[in-house]
Design the sequence.
């Protein structure tokens, strides 16, 4: 039997700031850009969260909600360094690790579990939390179960410093009462569609007949159905395979002219399309990365109607995402375009569905090469 951990650090950037500067401990810390220059919140410490402050919120709004909040500029190099240390601790438990971002990873701990010798999944998880704390000072929330998707949901349920174990066989009962949007692969638009069908919870989803899944999810029907009962058997993927192809450029002088920006963006998107084609890949998710004059860095992403490696659709979507950020007076230091979420070879080319947007902003440039990939 497999045992999978999903581990996610608590208020990652903010906790690092509190660790490095004791004066910030126990206080509401807002990591992000300046309110005067339309900065956004990358993250807020747990002390700030009761005021309603959330990631990706304009800093101006955050300051209004939480006037006593202390604004701290992000230090990405430091976060990368801390992330490396945390991943090293993870490696003391298993080599089978799939990092999802700087502060998040799946670990297959099957090899560390030995129930006849009293090494239960719970014990391994507690040990992991303790060692991350003692070796880095950070707290990590952990979900443990036999599948990636269940562990991912579990790690989020008891934050901060959470630990949720879902025993083998209990997955479906655990998932049943949760909102359907918590399930991996069900975005806000799909959740709306399901709601219109009277399906609000994962349990209600799991009860639907196979034809219904076919109708709602097409080719994804079976994988969504298995996930809804916590039976997905997706392996923890340690392969350093290409997960995204991206290209970015930094300008010698900050750029604000929409025409010029559009030209650069289309060039980047065209380059990415070319590299995808050469690698035989088609991607669904288009991400644009932006860095403002004040160094605030964030991304916007959305999904194409169908996987593609053609310049046209990628350029068009990249521009749509970017132009929404184009406001008078705003200037840019860096632009990037990336494509990810690749189609499996047997999935290539299917009928277009509606475009589904996911506008999470990330302050890290994780996964982006420092330099544009060679075409
Ligand atoms: P998260 O794990 O989503 O958030 P968090 O670690 O700050 O808080 P928690 O997990 O306890 O809910 O993201 C990890 C880091 O990524 C976060 O510290 C800052 C960055 N980030 C952004 O820059 N913008 C965003 O919109 C989000 C969600 C995260
Ligand atoms: Mg986190």
Sequence:
């Amino acid at each position: 039997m497999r045992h999978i951990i999903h581990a996610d650090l608590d208020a990652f950037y903010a906790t690092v700031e509190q660790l490095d500067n004791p004066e910030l401990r126990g206080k509401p810390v807002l990591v992000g850009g300046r309110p005067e220059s339309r900065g956004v919140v990358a993250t807020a410490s747990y002390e700030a969260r009761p005021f309603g402050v959330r990631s990706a919120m304009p800093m101006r709004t955050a300051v209004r909600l939480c006037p006593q909040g202390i604004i701290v500029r992000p230090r990405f190099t430091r976060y990368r360094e801390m992330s490396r240390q945390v991943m090293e601790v993870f490696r003391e438990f298993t080599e089978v690790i799939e990092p999802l971002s700087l502060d998040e990873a799946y670990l297959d701990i099957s090899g560390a579990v030995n129930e006849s010798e009293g090494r239960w999944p719970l014990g391994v998880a507690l040990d992991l939390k303790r060692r991350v704390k003692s070796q880095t000072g950070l707290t990590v929330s952990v979900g443990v179960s036999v599948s990636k998707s269940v562990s991912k949901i579990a790690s989020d349920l008891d934050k901060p410093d959470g630990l949720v174990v879902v025993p083998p066989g209990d997955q479906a009962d655990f998932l049943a009462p949760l909102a359907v949007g918590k399930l991996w692969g069900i975005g806000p638009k799909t959740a709306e569609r399901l709601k219109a069908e009277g399906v609000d919870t994962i349990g209600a989803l799991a009860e639907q007949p196979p034809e219904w899944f076919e109708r709602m999810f097409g080719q994804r029907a079976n994988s969504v159905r298995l996930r809804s009962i916590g039976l997905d058997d997706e392996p923890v993927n340690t392969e350093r395979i290409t997960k995204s192809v991206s290209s970015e450029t930094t300008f010698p002088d900050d750029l604000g002219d929409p025409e010029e920006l559009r030209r650069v963006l289309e060039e980047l998107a065209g380059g990415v399309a070319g590299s995808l084609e050469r690698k035989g890949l088609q991607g669904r998710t288009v991400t644009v990365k932006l860095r403002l004059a004040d160094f605030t860095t964030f991304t916007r992403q959305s999904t194409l109607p169908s996987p593609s490696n053609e310049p046209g659709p990628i350029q068009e979507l990249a521009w749509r995402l970017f132009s929404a950020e184009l406001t008078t007076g705003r200037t840019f230091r860096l632009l990037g375009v990336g494509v990810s979420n690749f189609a499996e070879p047997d999935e290539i080319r299917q009928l277009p569905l509606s475009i589904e947007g996911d506008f999470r902003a990330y302050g890290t440039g994780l996964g982006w090469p420092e330099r544009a990939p060679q075409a």
In short: Residues 8-9, 12, 103 surround magnesium ion (ligand 2) (CB under 6 Å). The first strand starts at residue 4 and ends at 9.
